[in-house]
Amino acid sequence: METRIFETKEMMGQAAAEAAAGGIRNAIAQRGQANLILATGASQFEMLECLVATGGIDWSKVVMFHLDEYIGLGPEHPASFRKYLRQRFVERVGNLQAAHFVDGDAEDPEQECERLGALIQAHPIDVACIGIGENGHLAFNDPPADFETEEPYLLVQLDQRCRKQQLGEGWFETLEQVPSQAISMSIRQILKSRRLVVTVPDRRKAEAVRNALAGSVTPDCPASILREHANCSMFLDKAAGALLAGK
After folding, report:
1. Which of 21, 153, 156, 170 has the most crowded CB, counting CB atoms within 10 A?
2. C-alpha distances out from residue 88 to 47, 52, 170, Å
């Protein structure tokens, strides 16, 4: 797995966006369409800002999926990932072929997982732009993550450290407001992406980065499974890479 460390978040975000854009352009050139996964959260701010400013992409040939969403949170809630992606990406690129959002307030979450699963299985993913959590999670697959299930989307419980991260990033005013359940793309579905672009800033992620890159491949650090992907690049700022040997 390629790992690159940058002095600033802005440099990190630019490099990650260039990698993602290259994968999108290649897919359009080869197959006439690109299927894209986007993550949310504070780790993706700089990358998304640079990606929407990137030229040379025909967004009308891009289908977007997103990783996860809280259960029971409406699409206009300040912490809604649907709102995040509409504001920071969908409305800015303007003419996507399609944007497939996770409906976290669907009446039947299991049925919503089935709906999304059928959609994504019909759209093999070219590029997945993701992050990792303070607890090493991928999407909302908190440790110990399920490395085996082939279901594309899952109902998951959020652990305490994950919920505290959402509070600490300012999405909620109290821990009690942070939902305890979510719909999440599964580990295996993420790994089916042809290209993984992983963007991880901030000192608070340094322990998870070290465990993911230098520890055992284990469900106790879900992000460690990224080392088994054939085309994965991790983009770090200096703070996130602070605990890596020799850095």
Report:
1. 153
2. 10, 8, 17
Q: How far, in Å, CA of 32 to CA of 49, rounded?
A: 25
CATH number at residue 10: 3.40.50.1360
The tokens for 195 are 């290209």
pTM above 0.85, yes or no: yes
Q: Is residue 96 part of a domain?
A: yes
The count of domains in the chain is 1
Strand partners, 127: 36, 195
CB 25 within 8 A of CB 57: yes
Q: 3-state class of 32 per DSSP?
A: coil
pLDDT digits (tens, 9 = 90+) for 175-222: 999 889 999 999 999 999 999 999 999 999 999 999 999 999 999 999
Model pLDDT for residues 95-143, shown as the tens digit of each residue: 999 999 999 999 999 999 999 999 999 999 999 999 999 999 999 999 9
Q: What is d(CA 212, CA 141) in angstroms, rounded to the nearest whole number? A: 14
Beta bridge partners of 69: 183
Query: Among 225, 196, 222, 240, which Cα is nearest to 137's?
Result: 222
106-110, Cβ contacts within 8 angstroms, sequence gap of 24 or more:
109/71, 109/155, 109/181, 109/183, 110/155
